[in-house]
Amino acid sequence: MSTSAQQELDALASLEERIRGAVELVSTLRSQNRDLESQLSSALQERDSVRQELDDLRSERKQVRTRIEKLLGQLDLLSST
User: Fold this and answer.
1) In the prediction, which pLDDT does 8 show?
2) pLDDT tops 90 at residue 75
3) What is the helix (H) or strand (E) element at residue 73, kind and residue range?
4) Tell me, what DSSP letter sits at residue 17?
5) C-alpha angle with apex 50: 46 to 52, nearest 5 degrees?
6) Which long-range contacts (CB under 8 A, 24 or more apart) does 61-64 make?
7) Closest to 10 in 3D by CA, of 2, 24, 21, 26
8) Closest Cα to residue 68, out of 79, 76, 57?
9) Can you tell me the distance from the alpha carbon of 39 to that of 45, in angstroms, rounded to the nearest whole number?
10) Could you read off the pLDDT of 21-62 as tens digits, one per residue?
11) pLDDT range class, residue 1, cuts 50, 70, 90
């Protein structure tokens, strides 16, 4: 086999190897992307759940504050009479 033919085969083999590497990299990146999208979705759901819980707690705190203010008002009425 001539030297130029051997060089062409080596160049082709090198190209094939680089293409295989690129295919593996793309496959790995796609898999990682799917995993990250799943993690993001879970994190967003958790965030929404925490926000709802926070809103519920704020509402409950407001109700408790209102009830305490009413009770304090009743105590003020008792002490003023």
Assistant:
1) 83
2) yes
3) helix 3-80
4) H
5) 115
6) none
7) 2
8) 76
9) 10
10) 999 999 999 999 999 999 999 999 999 999 999 999 999 999
11) low
